[in-house]
Amino acid sequence: MPKLFVKTYGCQMNVHDGERMAELLAGQGYEATDKPEDADMVLLNTCHIREKAAEKVYSDIGRLRPLRAAKPDLRIAVAGCVAQAEGEEILARAPMVDLVVGPQSYHNLPALMARVAKGEKVVETEFPAEDKFDHLPARRLRAPTAFLTVQEGCDKFCAFCVVPYTRGAEVSRPLARIVAEARALAEQGVREITLLGQNVNAWHGAEGGLAMLVRELAGLEGLARIRYTTSHPNDMDDALIAAHGEEPKLMPFLHLPVQSGSDRVLKAMNRKHRAADYLRLVGRLRAARPDLLLSSDFIVGFPGETEEDFAATLALVEEVRFGSAYSFAYSSRPGTPAAERPGVDPEVAHDRLLRLQAVITRQQREAQEATVGRVLPVLFEKPGRVPGQMTGKSEHLMAVSVMGPESWRGKIVPVRITAALTNSLTGEAV
Question: Which CATH class name applies to 253-370?
Answer without folding.
Answer: alpha beta
